[in-house]
Amino acid sequence: MQGITLSLQDAKELAWALVPHTSDDKVTPVLRNVALGGDLGNFAYATDRYTVGRFDLTNMVDGDMPTEMILIPGKALAAVRSLGPTTLPNSLFASEYLIRFETIEVASVNYVLAKAIWRTEDQGDMVQWMRSWLVPTSVGNFPPVSRLFTVTPGVDTYRTHLMAEHVDKFTRYAAHIESPIRITLTERVNQKDSPVLVEIGRRFKGLIQPTIVLDSFGFGDDLAFDNAKKNEASE
User: Fold this and answer.
1) Is 166 helix (H, G, I), strand (E, B) or coil?
2) What DSSP state is assigned to residue 106?
3) How far is the C-alpha of 102 from the C-alpha of 14, rounded, in Å?
4) Cα separation of 67 and 86, whole Å?
């Protein structure tokens, strides 16, 4: 059995950061999960193919990181994200709540058990409160998205196109932690737009895959931009 324990506050921040980047893809169900542990180091990852989110868990884990990669369903994290004073006992909400995620197998089906636990003031042992979720999880190879974060900041100015729905996945987390968003164009390869690097707060980095659009055929702002680049090159 593999597992990871975080404080309620840290588990909720992880959920705010990465749940938007999980997929509802039925063809590739592994993308419905957040991956962490194993050779991923102190980072957790999520991707829906169009965006990637990476969250730094350094100094957040109660105990050790899982020795093997585990997949936590986005639905389990979303349930934890919804916890608050109205869904936990008011007299206990201010105490030291922890969230434990454990992988288990029932009748050859893989699940993640997420449960809210706390430490009482008069004893060091963890006591479980009756709040838990059993969510089916996936098996299979999570894409090696950690390699994508070796991107290099670009030096050339170029125009790129991003889908508003992809950008919104980042702005929700930025608004939640009240942090500005730092956006960097990365180095182009073979004149193709590279992923856009997004940094929010101290722990989060993400990537957005630019969208390919049809040429404007010389109309509007694109014509002015293209002509300016041509004139600059001719000089």
Assistant:
1) helix
2) E
3) 16
4) 35
